[in-house]
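Annex B.
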Amino acid sequence: MKQMKKKISANFYYYQWVFNTRGLRKNFPKFKILSFTETIRQIIEDKKSISRFGDGEFRLFFPEFALEFQENSEEISKKLKEVAASDLPNHLVCLPEPFYSSKNFDIPTKYWWKKFINGYGQRILLFLNSDKIYGNQFITRFYIGYKDKSDPTILHTVSLLKKIWEKQEILIVEGRYSRLGVGNDLFDNAKTLERIICPVKNAFRCYDKILNAVKEHGKNKLVLISLGPTATILAYDLAKAAYWALDVGHIDIEYMWFLMKVKDKVSIRGRHVNEASEQQSFDIPDELKDKYEKSIILDINE
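Glycosyl transferase: predicted structure tokens.
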């Protein structure tokens, strides 16, 4: 009974806050954003590359902001704005689903995005087009922020995602401690899997080196990139060069959280989880180390 009263109270104050701050979102449009299914369909059937914009990428539009894992610069800001305004036939720019509707999300996630729109909405409108159709940025954020965390719902989403790389030769481009697929079955249906390891922070400093390496090793492969804002830009530049590249962000972390059945963002052994308050050891369990190390074809340092 106490828990129920506490939840009702929290919901009451949230909706009161939403009402009181509605003026800050008054002119922020409801963007046209594809569903999970349609976004994934275009990736598979049309072999579209995707670049995802979250709050971090938008913050880097403005010189007064930096991220914990990515410094700002005139060059990265310019490139992110170029990607946001792009309209390539083989590439989808993906926006957060709450830019269309937040009805499917839990209260903390709704609050986060409404607060973000309150503070940044009018500024980022200068770089977006309310008449354009965007992909769904949350295809790789499919678990922790949603109200429905049931097994059937999440497993259906995961099965759709897995169809993207089924029987594909994939090249993963990731930060040093991202380790996509290590210790889970997320990419078990891929034909082959190789990795390029990049710096854990400020990867954009090595951008030309990373881009050239992917062009050399990623021909005729599906390139999956987990590298913060650098991934957003890299997927776009690769699409321009006729590569198939997906900015997959936290996809592996979301899958691990689902397997762990957690309700909040927590750390994971062997991985860097920047959104968790505490970090576990970055050591890979011995039984996983050999397979992981054999998948690395290149290690890019600053």
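The CA atoms of residues 28 and 122 lie 7 Å apart. The first strand starts at residue 32 and ends at 33. Further annotation is deferred to the next reporting cycle.
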